[in-house]
């Protein structure tokens, strides 16, 4: 078993990561940051997003596991005072895993070239100045002309992040679907959008054709540089992200813990 450790630069995360490296070496576990079987993320959910994007080309062969230095997260099952238990679980790994849906974003340039990206949380198309104008197609048909600040398209595990701030629903990660939510749409007698989040199943695409050229495209913590984008396509990826599941933390308990009250 080969382990990579990915941590943020907070002092506590660096200390835990150093202790994990020592514990792994003491137990003859190979530390391999290039071709790991398991990536241990030490930090928050944001840190795990960084780990996911770092290893995105290898995700079919990798399992992630997260140790949170704050509260219980959505991608993290362990807390900073559980390092010993966590090491013990890692050393007794028997391949147990849980898998979640991902978002596939295709960016089509005006030249016709197309590039694919994977997101664990979401993709966001946002125009910081002026109004984003974009035609949205659903089921292969024109659906609406969007005018506003932007849209977000989230995975089920990303539904508790940006999507939730946009009034999106929290989606259980056993559902292979993506959710589009609006960011400050203009709705009046002249301009009209659906005005509510919508959920699209596997095998269907959301297509967006922007009419303006001053927007930003973000996916997780990444930004796609350059303009000249003719079309953006969003669908549930055929790939999934795998997590080493040494213990089960119920999704609704995570939601409750994050937004309502501390788990007793
Ligand atoms: P950040 O701005 O430093 O922190 C964003 C917050 O979102 C952190 O508290 C992070 O948790 C939390 N988070 C990340 N993924 C989550 C998930 N799946 N469910 C619930 N909370 C989640 O940015 P970051 O840490 O690099 O994370 C990037 C993410 O921030 C983006 O993917 C986007 O979803 C989110 N974001 C949200 C808004 C908004 O709500 N208006 C705006 C911009 C970005 P930890 O503290 O555990 O890291």
UniProtKB/TrEMBL annotation:
One function term, GO molecular function aspect: NAD binding
Any single Gene Ontology cellular-component annotation: cytoplasm
Active-site residues, record numbering mapped to chain: 45
Reactions it catalyzes: NAD(+) + ATP = ADP + NADP(+) + H(+)
Matching InterPro entries: ATP-NAD_kinase_N, ATP-NAD_kinase_PpnK-typ_C, NAD/diacylglycerol_kinase_sf, NADK
Chief location category: cytoplasm
EC number of this enzyme: 2.7.1.23
Class of this enzyme: transferase
Function: Involved in the regulation of the intracellular balance of NAD and NADP, and is a key enzyme in the biosynthesis of NADP. Catalyzes specifically the phosphorylation on 2'-hydroxyl of the adenosine moiety of NAD to yield NADP.
Protein name: NAD kinase
